[in-house]
Structures
1.
Amino acid sequence: MSIAPIIAEVAVRQPPARAFELFTSRIGEWWPGKTIGARPHVAIVLEPRAEGRWYERDAEGDETQWGKVLAWEPPHRVLLGWQLDTSFTHNPDFLTEVEISFTALADGGTRVRLEHRDLERFGAEAERIAGMIRPGWQEKLDGFAHFVREEEKVS
């Protein structure tokens, strides 16, 4: 069974290098809503290197793993290994890929494109999981675009 990848996109008015930096180093500031940790997150971290960790940290300092960084190619691409299984629990033996690309636009801005693929790895739950996370990815990117607009106001 093959499940179509989830694709979400936004355009922001920052060049790729700045968009990449804001997306990756300040992800915890623009990621809206509840995450998978037992308590609300105070930080979401992408360690800036291939084989880095992808996790959240709560106010008590407890970390909840989400996955890992598979490729770190600033300012154009970051490839993440989503290691959350069908119960949204970290499973180091499970992996789907989330690729985020940053493409320069003619107006000086950047198209940010997210593709979550390999969803068939969720097995019998693939359609259900895809249906749950599909709207969430666009919501996350919309939150990022809003964050970038707010950053422009203070710069």
Note: The longest helix spans residues 126-154.
2.
Amino acid sequence: MAHIVLSEVSVSELAEAADANFVVHASWAAARTAGMQVINEREFVLVDSGLLCDTFNLICRARLARDDDSARIRTAIDFFDRVERSFSWWVGPADQPPDLGAHLIEAGLLPAETELAMAADLANLPTVDLTPAGLVIRRVRTEQALQAYARILDDPQVLRFYTLTAPVLLSADTPQWFYVGYLDDQPVATAELTVAGGVVGLYSIVTLEAYRRRGIGTAMTVQPLLDAREQGFRTGVLQAAAAGVGVYARLGFKQFGHIAEYKPPQRASNALSDV
């Protein structure tokens, strides 16, 4: 795998690399797990986990031609209507057509949230405290640790997903590295790093509410990136919600686009009410 150097690629090339990373993050385990399905076509990637959770049921990496985009969008939405499962459609800066979001709204979906797509040169990571308040960060190597990771995310369907996918996610060739942060042997924080597309992508940087504002989230962000840098990777990407933009900017991440999530009306309204 060629390792992308941030200073040597255009914004469009970076967006394509980030898209490739997100596809692996969203689909790699599902494609290898019984009862789950991944449809990887030229026009889009569709992931159906079989679970009642739109975290793992989604559509992404759209490359739609204007002459048939409405029909292909309808095909993807109808899939989840038939199986009666909620889903999200993620739209990134490389997706086509450029006004895809408007087409999704026309098809009946609603915007749920928008995040910044950000990237950083791993050579320029600042020095930070990786053990704030006595934090110990461990990469997940066992089913027990993966379940601890899932429990922090606090959703029974999430726990079910990681139980079902544990055999592949803990395999030697997994492109997804999971981390748990512990205080006094209690799991309090999570991070995922996905290796794909010539970059590394950060996902699920979560700290339990009682342990926030102690530098734990910063440590959970930087440790996986340092591990990736040791393996020769040069560029990190992530999706930043508004609350995290300042933290990521201080670590050297810069915006290169937006990532928007669209959902069926009931799911979208629930997401908006939770913000």
Note: Residues 11-27 form the longest helix (17 residues).
